[in-house]
Write a structure and sequence with these properties.
Layout (H helix, E strand, L loop, with lengths): L2 E6 L11 H11 L3 E6 L14 H11 L2 E7 L4 H14 L3 E4 L7 H20 L3 E5 L13 H8 L6 E5 H6 L4 H8 L3 E6 L11 H7 L7 H9 L13 H11 L3 E4 L10 H11 L6 E2 L2
Parallel strand pairs: 1-2, 1-8, 1-9, 2-3, 3-4, 4-5, 5-6, 6-7, 7-8
Helix pairs in contact: 2-3, 3-4, 4-5, 7-10
């Protein structure tokens, strides 16, 4: 068994609006086939993260041979999710994920658990899967325990899977492979990017601790988190081989490249092509 390689479309957010179909064509030329959409403003925009009707998007996907393996939404209401389910069923997307939570206290954790279970039930009723996408905050030790463990315990395993972003696990001071194994069969997909070598000793959780920032200071944590850097796969410090092996062990299906930040002026497609090539270093990755 291997993990199928995919691409999170936020990786081309700087160029896709100018030429949507052309961007898909260039990605297919690189070799990418499996794709995951991303919408950071789901309440305002019922789409795949860029302006295109579902019918036309499905035609492009079919014409170029893409396979939509998911769509990530920022936190949204049940009613909003219903609209996105309708859109993505037309496109042919197989499941939704939700991420981007910044927790301000125990009450919010309980509320998110309730929300995730309700949305998971809604997705199942409509023939789609649903998964939680982690950030960094979930892996920091708190007196009451870690948020990730509360989420795993509080959500219904029949309704809510996990999409483990290994980069943010690492930024939170945990070992990504160990966390994948701990979540076990609930892990259906991995999100993968790499951390620059010169930042290995200055992780986000270390900065928060050094600055004595309250772990529930959601706004400050969001600001610190957003100021992150990413390098091409295999050029940084994350043990991607171990992540791949752990993903295979728990039965995950996909490893999805998410290169969401680049240096100004960088060539998005060239960067994604380099990562695509570098994924061949890992024997557990399949190129659909």
């Amino acid at each position: 068994m291997k993990l199928d390689l995919g691409l999170q479309m936020i990786s081309v957010r700087q160029i896709i609006d100018a030429d949507i179909e052309g961007t898909f064509q260039r990605l297919r030329a690189v070799g990418y086939r499996n794709i995951e959409f991303c919408n950071h403003n789901p309440a305002r925009d019922i789409n795949a993260g860029f302006e295109m009707p579902a019918e036309r998007l499905r035609r492009i996907i079919e014409d170029y041979g893409f396979m939509p393996v998911g769509a990530q939404l920022a936190p949204a209401s049940e009613e909003c999710v219903k609209a996105h389910i309708g859109f993505h069923r037309q496109v042919g997307t197989t499941g939704l994920t939700m991420g981007g939570f910044f927790y301000d206290g125990p009450v919010m954790i309980r509320d998110v658990i309730y929300k995730l279970n309700k949305i998971g039930e809604l997705c199942r009723e409509n023939g789609m899967t649903f998964a939680y996408h982690n950030g960094m905050q979930e892996f920091i030790d708190l007196p009451s325990g870690r948020i990730i463990d509360m989420l795993a315990e509080g959500t219904d395993a029949a309704l809510v899977d996990f999409q483990v972003d290994t980069y943010w696990v690492f930024q939170g001071g945990a070992n990504p492979a160990d966390e994948i194994l701990k979540l076990g069969r609930r892990v259906k997909q991995l999100h993968q990017k790499d951390l620059p070598k010169d930042e290995a000793g200055d992780l986000v959780y270390q900065r928060l601790k050094r600055q004595c920032i309250d772990i529930y200071d959601a706004q400050t944590i969001m600001d610190v988190t957003m100021a992150h850097r990413v390098v091409e796969i295999g050029e940084g410090v994350i043990d991607i081989e171990a992540c791949v092996s752990a993903g295979i062990e728990v039965g995950a299906a996909d490893i999805i490249l998410e290169h969401d930040e680049r240096e100004p002026g960088a060539d998005d497609i060239a960067s994604l092509a380099a990562s695509y090539k570098n994924f061949s270093r890992y024997t557990g990755v399949n190129f659909p």
